[in-house]
Amino acid sequence: MAAPLPQKTSMAGMATQQQQQQQTASMAAGQPMAPQGALREISPVFLCRIGQETVQDIVTRTMEIFQITRATQLPNGVTQSQAMYQDRFGKLQEHLRQLALLFRKLRLLYERCVEMTADLQEGPAELVPYVGEELVNVRVETCSPSVHQERKEVLEKVRQKNQEMKVLMDQMRNLLWDVNAMLTLRK
């Protein structure tokens, strides 16, 4: 019964193993993997992508909160089990706590992006989606026709998406109105 011989490893192999161990440790700690050199400087684009994911998480959490509240039965004289009530209440509290943390994270990302891009250009006066036909005159350097065409296409897509969102909001408002009306008639 001979003991296994130790394998010979080169310095490059050891460095690769150390990097893999560090990445595994950072993933286990819940930290996202960052590319080499990104620890020194994180780009605003990367921050915006993290912000976008955070907004998606906020929307998901909010939808879960609404699902929990929708599944909760209003007190109508029928007693529910205390355990079920406590379970739903605990889930709701956890989602609200996570939602508050996500909003804080989003605020920090926003402030960091503003810091990093303050010297690039002047920010918008207000953060409102595109409304109406008026366009703000922006000084644009001469670009190729393909860039102008792409800009027109993007603006048209934005107009279409805004219109779709407006229609959806109107439908949701009408649906909520109908539900509230039916609930009041039921009483």
Plain-language structure description:
This protein has 187 residues and is mostly helical. It has helices at residues 11-28, 44-71, 82-117, 145-186. Helix 2 runs antiparallel to helix 3 (82-117). The longest helix has 42 residues, at 145-186. The chain starts with 10 loop residues before the first helix and ends with a helix.
Q: What would the keywords be for this entry?
A:
187 residues; mainly alpha; 4 helices
Structure, briefly:
By secondary structure, the protein is mainly α. It is 66% helix and 0% strand. The chain has helices at residues 11-28, 44-71, 82-117, 145-186.
Distance between the termini: 84 Å
Task: Assign an overall shape.
Answer: flat
For the secondary structure, the number of strands is: 0
Q: Which ranges are low-confidence, i.e. pLDDT below 50, for 5 or more consecutive residues?
A: 1-32, 34-39
Helix content: 55-70%
Determine the strand fraction and express it as a percent band. under 5%
Mean pLDDT: 75
Number of helical segments with 4 or more residues? 4
Order of helices and strands: HHHH
Radius of gyration computed on alpha carbons: 26 Å
The main β sheet shows up as: none
Structural class: mainly alpha
